[in-house]
């Protein structure tokens, strides 16, 4: 029903308007999702323990869809095993000028240049106080106005305020839509940033997993640096990958829009990055695989390449909630 009726209606709207309408319907008419999609798949055999947390299944929602923790409960009710909110910044910010979100229908892709638009970490915390058992990841970043030399403080502010309300953290230095943010992926500044966060983390009564979200556009040499950084800072793992700046082999009219590309064109590259990190590190840390998962085969390839968990974003928009259940059914089929 999603692909035959709901998606065509939503895709007649501007992408950002469609997003807000979807969230309005989720919040106010959540009972309809049970009628349309049925009950999500629950099975004890789907549970996984990763970096010390128990996930009810391996399929999560990637950051960017529910930036402000508005509908994490309703999204969880669709069958996701975990929800990642954000990217959140210390202060609210409007993001980049509209229009800033584009569908590439012929490529089953999206280009966004949102620019960390969010209501700020304090507003998200108030919503998270109402959480009733959803496993939450907190994706954190810096404000656009904060220079890179002062970026650590922004991440620390978000870390401290979110700490009581999320189960794991994700350090986002890989979005292409905040000027100079990706420079923080270089070895020296990244080691400093993660080191500072880990120091704060280990001073807590019970530390929480910190993960690093990386770009798919890193070279092999840079990926080897990432492995070294994870080992040296002792963070819990990596999310591979964020959106790409590549526009290779696109055919859609909107292909020249600036911003980060997600969806099917990213499928192969994100899996390559997962496999590289897994093999070169000797499976030394967990990896959450995200990027171009539009089918059960895409998800299984990432798990087989070395991912412990997977996340959906663009595939969820194109394929609908049925994709969550299909992936979990496939995982069950492969359990021996």
UniProtKB/TrEMBL annotation:
UniProt keyword annotations, A-Z: Cell membrane, Flavoprotein, FMN, Membrane, Oxidoreductase, Pyrimidine biosynthesis
Principal cellular location given in the protein's record: membrane
Organism: Chryseobacterium lacus
Dihydroorotate dehydrogenase catalytic domain boundaries: 46-333
Membrane topology: Peripheral membrane protein
Complex formation: Monomer.
Name of this protein: Dihydroorotate dehydrogenase (quinone)
Cofactor note: Binds 1 FMN per subunit.
A biological-process GO annotation: 'de novo' UMP biosynthetic process
Active site (catalytic residues): 175
GO cellular component: a single term: cytoplasm
Native organism taxonomy: Bacteria, Pseudomonadati, Bacteroidota, Flavobacteriia, Flavobacteriales
